[in-house]
Known about the structure:
Order of helices and strands: EHEEEEHEEEEHEEEEHEEEH
Number of helices: 5
Structural class: alpha+beta
Distance between the termini: 54 Å
CATH architecture: Roll
Shape: globular
CATH class: Alpha Beta
Number of domains: 1
CATH topology: 2,3-Dihydroxybiphenyl 1,2-Dioxygenase, domain 1
Amino acid sequence: MTKQTTGIHHITAFAGNPQANVDFYAGILGLRLVKKTINFDAPDVYHLYFGNEAGSPGTIITFFPSPGSPKGEIGGGQVGITTYVVPQGSLDFWENRLTGFDISVKKVSRFNEVFLQFTDNEGLNLEIVERSEGADSKWSFSGIPADKAIKGFGGAVLFSTNAESTMDTLQTVLGLTKIAQDDKYARFQATGEIANIIDVPLENMEWGIGGAGTVHHIAWRANDYEDHAEWQKAVMRKGYRPTQIIDRQYFNAIYFREYGGILFEIATDPPGFAKDEPAESLGEKLMLPEWYEEHRAQIEANLFPIQVREMNKS
């Protein structure tokens, strides 16, 4: 029997200016900066996590922001559009808010839903959709009331160099169910209430180029450590070669690249972001894994100073 993920755990992307990244995702989109740490493989680069009040799986977008990063090109082998979900009746609020910050928006329809599409400050493709499923956010910041705030991910649009293979992986490896198809897209659904709808363009895409404004990988949820170990074996049985289990401090991870070119991760729900700092002060201090603590002064000196601040409309 095919295992089933409940949906997206997190999405990780590249960015340039760290302060501009914080200003967009915390100041404009109103997400909480739940963890300020470093790229464990490159400690002179931040790893920033934004999500709901707790950084719950299904709400987390993460960035490696590095000043001067070359611009990427969105294309095949990437998450093409990251989808956020808001409560019913909130889309007009978000259209007014984004245009108030001089952010260009457009409305498009897929599968009888209306999406408000725009890009972040780096050109990363984003969209917002209204859905009733999923708990409302309890986080209110920068003039966004909690009843209009982003709940988390609605899902994603995957740009594949081999759409048939990607769609097969979604179904036969991750256990998503195909629920719709038209002349442009196929739609798949995971079992969770949010971060559960994946749309795949039927036309194969030319390869994208990684860099600022592009997604590095998409991570899918594993319930716990035992479930995670089972996922590793299940992926291997399907002919992939997943990595060993890697401790990412706030979750364990395995990685594999599906045949449409997209880097997939499977990540555990536990232990979460309150592992090393109080829930009420998440994201306020630079958190380092223990093996980097002795180098804290040098690491902090090499990082661009950032602060979470409210943003004023133009």
